[in-house]
Amino acid sequence: MRPHYFYSILFLMALILHTSTNADTMNVSQPPIAENKTSNETFSLLNDRGVAYALGHETPQNNVEAVKRFRKAAEQGLPVAQRNLGIMYAFGKGVPQSDIKAAQYFHKAAQQGDVIAQLNLGVMCATGKGVAKNEIEAVTWFRKAARQGLPVAQRNLGLMYGTGKGIKRNDTKAFQWFYKAAHQGEPIAQLNLAAMYVDGKGVPQSDTKAFEWFRKAAEQGEKMAQLHLGFLYAQGKGVQRNDLIATQWMSKAAQQGLALAQFNLGTRYAEGLGIEQNDAEAAKWFLKAAEQGNVLAQRSIAIMFSTGRGIQQSDVDAVKWFMQAAQQGDFVAEYNLGVNYITGKGIAQNDLKAVEYFRRAAKKGLPEAQFALAAVYHDGVGVEKNDAEAMKWLRKAAQQGNASAQMRLNALEQG
């Protein structure tokens, strides 16, 4: 399906919460922070009034007024108010945006056990926002929040173990933390858990288990999981092959803007896999993915422009997209650019540029480019005539099964 890697999303959790919010509403096992009712009651009320202003509950929404109340309560040491004030600074609500001040208030709350603050401080340490980047420190805070049961923190801790950032890489521990978060419904953890089952990292390989967890994440709308669920249906891995359902899941991911899914959906329209064959739809989805930088889509839409398949024929547009794909090292695009340069289609004719692109693709092993390079050396087009170089590239192309090269080589050897 793909080389193994972890899907990582590190973001601040912007939960503005009342003092009275308990563990159940946050889906974590954080014990209530002990408060002296007589001394903290006023500050708790201040925080709650700040929440009302921040969210516009039973009062007009007003971030400036929210900040005033969070600050008063935070200055008296109320952890939830410290975290809430940190969130306001992090997102520039009611105050000028300041990662430094956000980190300071998250740190105050985190030290008192506020689980959201611990998570947010870990994110800031991992990304270097508001504090010096320190992945070891990030692991420390993720672990504190993860042990309190916060699923996003558990997923982040799994990510740190899986990538070896801030701690020695350990696939088994990565799997364990992803598993904890996944069972609480965290979609990225479910996606990573499925990926580990696919690759047998930290757990015995199992396409069936991979399918199970990709499906859980996909049903929550996680677009990468939707794409990979489509791959499993298309390949019949972990589930009976079903091209119709495969295309349906890829379509869901494509409609969410995932470039790789858009390319695959375009391919399925082009080939009529699980959907009625439709070149115009194929071109539409290739173009969407190409505009996001997907190299295979850039090559595909270039070919469709070149041939006029599913879209108005345009050599100029074909060259445009071949050029973008070639800049990413795509050897098929490089070869086709060589053809366009030597023929002058869609671009000013230039033999030197043609040879340059033929050579790039030939060195990467494309037999068509090797045959073309042999031809320009034989004819002295864009390069000094050199029969030895021509034969070298002709043999390379023939050895890879290029029929034109084999016929030419046989003819030369038979005299």
Overall SS class: mainly alpha
Question: Largest beta sheet, briefly?
Answer: none
3D shape: elongated
The string of secondary-structure elements, in order, is: HHHHHHHHHHHHHHHHHHHHHH
Residues in β-strands, percent: under 5%
End-to-end Cα distance: 48 Å
Q: What oligomeric state best describes the polypeptide chains here?
A: single chain
Number of helices: 22
- List low-pLDDT spans: 21-38
Radius of gyration: 29 Å
Number of strands: 0
> In which range does the helix fraction lie?
55-70%
The overall pLDDT average reads 92
Written description of the protein model:
This protein is mainly alpha-helical. Helices cover 67% and strands 0% of the residues. The chain has helices at residues 23-26, 37-55, 63-75, 79-91, 99-111, 115-127, 135-147, 151-163, 171-182, 187-199, 207-219, 223-235, 243-255, 259-271, 279-291, 295-307, 315-327, 331-343, 351-363, 367-379, 387-399, 403-413. Helix 6 (115-127) packs antiparallel against helix 7 and helix 20 (367-379) packs antiparallel against helix 21 (387-399).
Spell out the key features of this protein:
415 residues, elongated, 22 helices, mainly alpha
